[in-house]
């Protein structure tokens, strides 16, 4: 089994390389990244990394001894064993060195390696502060308007979407659900404005599950179009608490750093009333990570100064921004502030926009 | 430094009322504000050069005031209210030391300094753009929503000298809607090229007997918001509200030559350089981009923190030969000489100029993109 696995995992390198000494395994013109098969490529990459590590750390006689002890025909199992052995060796070295040991290396994550975005908002920037204080959300943040939300769906919604809308309306205070009877959004919007609604949420449905969200701030505000995924209704959440109460929740917005992220964060904040009622101990969280926005609704209780217990209530879903349009919903003639262009913007795995 | 305002290559007006001068060679953007407090209703909606030598800029704001900015001095020198009609400015031009303005409700007015004998005409409601013919400064063209292209002669403002006719009904025998968003006069002839909100590019020829467009090309599915002529005047660069910018050839029946990429938001204004193959564009995604038309490369990309409405590109050539050094080394030299001058009888107040900082000018250093975060080494 082991030799069979080795045979299949060798890749385009010479077939008898397993028997040849390790130095000849990687001829100079060979590049691991040109192997198209992901499993084989992963295996060859591990082999290559090992070789590099040995070449840098182990010196002459030790290398010969190493080769004797660990002959070149290895399978995945042997590689893992080697890895564990190396780890143990490193831990022993660290303990031996004691205080003089070098600090533990920080593992690389994609968030660590994120390309610096020049639109990241600097808190001391006056121009951005002025821009934000006079944009379309200024009336909300100056406490001149109270949010009033209209929630509706695409035409002829199925059961799951209907229940999701009902649960959303229990979470968001001062919100009303209306059945969409095939009405055009451009006709709904002037009526909403005349009835003092401040926001419009449209849940789009496809094949009986909700998959999109259009959030439009009403008098003339921006319209954001999201793709929604991972929708879990209240009964599908394990270890959940009781129904959310009527108290106004607190809002947590995490990790909206760029200018676009700020606009979207303010949009979410303007859905909830300005003064949370701490008696209710409820909190709605919008957490942005790698351009995906995770929404959760919890009830918390402080057991002591530092220990908190949380209980998840309410639906949860994930959003990804597709476009931000400057006026109210007008997909044909509207002007877009930001559009997600897949082929241009998704070229780098370390660049995020929110 | 106020005197370096003249070396700015691009002037951009933003929605927050700030006029930004961008020096692409030194990669710096400077904000110029008329009053010390910013106001939203002073957002810039139209800009034009005040004179052919490009030493003055006329800035039209949302509150219907036109401000004069001097690039030599680096500050706003005059301001005047141009009231009348409703809506914001859709076009500004200068002719014989008088200002021509057009607002969205259709009031086209010529303002002379004496504030008498102001001539005005109604050009129709729903105006989107008014532009002056650079070859014949007394002719202006106007276009708007459901408002076909008209060319007016300011000496005879009662009737337009050219009124365009709509194309024939389409294949369903329905009237084709009209929405001229931007227009440009082609140099060397009387032709006018326009781009519409129904993603069409049209070419009109007043000297030909037909009033219908001579050429019509479609591009994309979204409204085209901005238009500019390339050097050589055989193709145009159009920008759309979806962030697509393309070069369309007029001599080859509207063929799409190439697309310029990189935009994330609606393109509000496009300007080509008259001789170099460069095109500058700005939009709602708060970036100013300069592309090279020939090889589609993005040459400069500048983050300017507000939404940008309009821009002007200098027609200076030879950007590399300009004054490269800022006044910093000169300041050092001046400080050393201060003792010398103090001993002598001074006439010029050089030291005062150097030390007082203009409160209206704030410089932001751009620099290139900072390097990627340093990779921490993993492993022994």
Concise account of the structure shown:
The complex is a heterodimer of chains A (354) and B (380). By secondary structure, chain A is α/β, with parallel strands linked by helices. Chain A has helices at residues 2-8, 38-57, 60-69, 76-97, 126-133, 138-141, 159-171, 185-194, 259-269, 342-345, and strands at 149-153, 175-177, 199-206, 209-217, 223-232, 250-254, 282-289, 292-302, 308-325, 336-339.
Description:
- With 354 residues, chain A is α/β, with parallel strands linked by helices.
- Chain A is built from 10 helices and 10 strands.
- Chain A has helices at residues 2-8, 38-57, 60-69, 76-97, 126-133, 138-141, 159-171, 185-194, 259-269, 342-345, and strands spanning 149-153, 175-177, 199-206, 209-217, 223-232, 250-254, 282-289, 292-302, 308-325, 336-339.
- In chain A, strands 1, 2, 3, 4, 5, 6, 7, 8, 9 and 10 form a 10-stranded mixed sheet that branches.
- In chain A, a hairpin with a 5-residue loop joins β4 and β5 (223-232).
- Chain A starts with a helix and ends in a 9-residue tail after the last helix.
- Mean pLDDT of chain A is 84; it is low at 1-24.
- Chain B has 380 residues and is mainly beta.
- Chain B is built from 2 helices and 29 strands.
- Chain B has helices at 328-343, 350-355; strands at residues 10-14, 19-23, 28-32, 44-49, 56-61, 65-70, 75-81, 89-95, 98-103, 107-111, 119-122, 127-132, 139-144, 147-153, 162-163, 180-185, 192-196, 200-204, 215-218, 224-229, 235-240, 245-249, 255-260, 267-272, 278-283, 287-292, 298-303, 308-313, 361-365.
- Chain B has a 5-stranded antiparallel sheet, with no helix packed on it.
- In chain B, a hairpin with a 5-residue loop joins β20 and β21.
- The longest helix of chain B has 16 residues, at 328-343.
- Chains A and B meet through α5 and β10 of A and loops of B.
């Amino acid at each position: 089994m082991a030799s069979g696995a080795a045979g299949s995992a060798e890749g385009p390198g010479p077939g008898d390389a397993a028997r040849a000494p390790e130095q000849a395994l990687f001829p100079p013109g060979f590049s691991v990244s040109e192997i198209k098969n992901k499993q084989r490529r992963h295996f060859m990459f591990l082999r290559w990394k090992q070789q590099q590590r040995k070449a840098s750390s182990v010196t002459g006689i030790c290398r010969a001894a190493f080769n004797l002890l660990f002959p070149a025909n290895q399978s995945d199992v042997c590689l893992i064993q080697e890895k564990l052995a190396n780890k143990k060796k490193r831990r022993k070295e660290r303990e031996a060195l004691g205080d003089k040991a070098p600090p533990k290396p920080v593992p690389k994550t994609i968030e660590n390696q994120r390309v610096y975005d020049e639109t990241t908002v600097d808190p001391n920037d006056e121009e951005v502060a002025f821009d934000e204080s006079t944009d379309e959300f200024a009336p909300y943040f100056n406490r001149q308007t109270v949010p009033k939300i209209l929630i509706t769906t695409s035409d002829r919604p199925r059961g799951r979407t209907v229940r999701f809308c009902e649960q959303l309306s229990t979470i968001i205070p001062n919100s009303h659900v209306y059945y969409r009877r095939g009405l055009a959004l451009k006709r709904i919007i002037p009526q909403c404005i005349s009835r003092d609604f401040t926001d419009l949420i449209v849940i789009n449905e496809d094949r009986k599950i909700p998959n999109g969200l259009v959030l439009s701030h009403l008098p003339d505000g921006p319209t954001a179009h999201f793709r929604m995924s991972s929708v879990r209704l209240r009964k599908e959440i394990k270890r959940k608490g009781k129904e959310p109460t009527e108290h106004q929740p607190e809002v947590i917005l995490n990790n909206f750093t760029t200018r676009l992220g700020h606009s979207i964060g303010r949009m979410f904040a303007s859905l909830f009333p300005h003064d949370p009622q701490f008696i209710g101990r409820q909190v709605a969280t919008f957490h942005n990570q790698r351009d995906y926005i995770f929404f959760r609704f919890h009830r918390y209780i402080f057991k002591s100064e530092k220990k908190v217990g949380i209980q998840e209530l309410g639906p949860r879903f994930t959003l990804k921004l597709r476009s931000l349009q400057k006026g109210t919903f007008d997909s044909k003639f509207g002007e877009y502030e930001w559009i997600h262009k897949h082929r241009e913007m998704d070229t780098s795995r370390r660049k995020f926009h929110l | 430094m106020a005197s370096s305002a003249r070396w700015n290559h691009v002037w951009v007006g933003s929605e927050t009322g700030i006029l930004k001068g961008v020096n692409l060679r030194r990669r710096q953007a400077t904000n110029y504000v008329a009053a010390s407090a910013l106001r939203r209703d002073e957002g810039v909606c139209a800009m034009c050069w005040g004179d052919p030598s490009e030493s003055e800029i006329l800035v039209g704001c949302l509150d219907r005031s036109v401000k004069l900015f001097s690039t030599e001095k680096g500050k706003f020198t005059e301001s005047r209210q141009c009231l009348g009609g409703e809506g914001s400015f859709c076009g500004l031009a200068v002719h014989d030391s008088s200002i021509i303005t057009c607002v969205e409700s259709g009031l086209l007015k010529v303002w002379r300094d004496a504030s008498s004998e102001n001539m005005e005409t109604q050009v129709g409601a729903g105006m989107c753009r008014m532009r002056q013919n650079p070859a014949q400064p007394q002719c202006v063209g106007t276009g708007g929503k459901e408002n076909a292209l008209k060319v007016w002669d300011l000496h005879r403002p009662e009737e337009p000298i050219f009124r365009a006719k709509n194309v024939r009904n389409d294949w369903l025998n329905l009237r084709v809607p009209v929405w001229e968003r931007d227009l440009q006069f082609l140099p060397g002839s009387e032709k006018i090229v326009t781009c519409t909100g129904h993603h069409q590019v049209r070419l009109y020829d007043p000297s030909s007997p037909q009033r219908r467009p001579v050429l019509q090309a479609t591009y994309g599915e979204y409204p085209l918001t901005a238009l500019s002529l390339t050097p050589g005047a055989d193709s145009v660069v159009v920008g759309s509200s979806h962030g697509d910018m393309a070069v369309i050839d007029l001599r080859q029946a509207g063929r799409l030559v190439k697309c310029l990429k990189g935009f994330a938001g609606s393109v509000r204004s496009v300007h080509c350089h008259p001789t170099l193959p460069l095109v500058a564009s700005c939009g709602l995604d708060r970036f100013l981009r300069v592309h090279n038309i020939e090889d589609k490369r993005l040459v400069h990309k500048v983050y300017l923190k507000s939404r940008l409405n309009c821009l002007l590109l200098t027609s200076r050539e030879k950007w590399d030969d300009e004054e490269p050094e800022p006044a910093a080394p000169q300041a050092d030299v001046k400080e050393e000489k201060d003792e010398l001058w103090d001993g002598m009888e001074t006439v010029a107040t050089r030291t005062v100029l150097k030390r007082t900082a203009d409160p209206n000018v704030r410089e932001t250093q751009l620099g290139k993109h900072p390097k990627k975060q340093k990779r921490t080494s993993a492993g022994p």
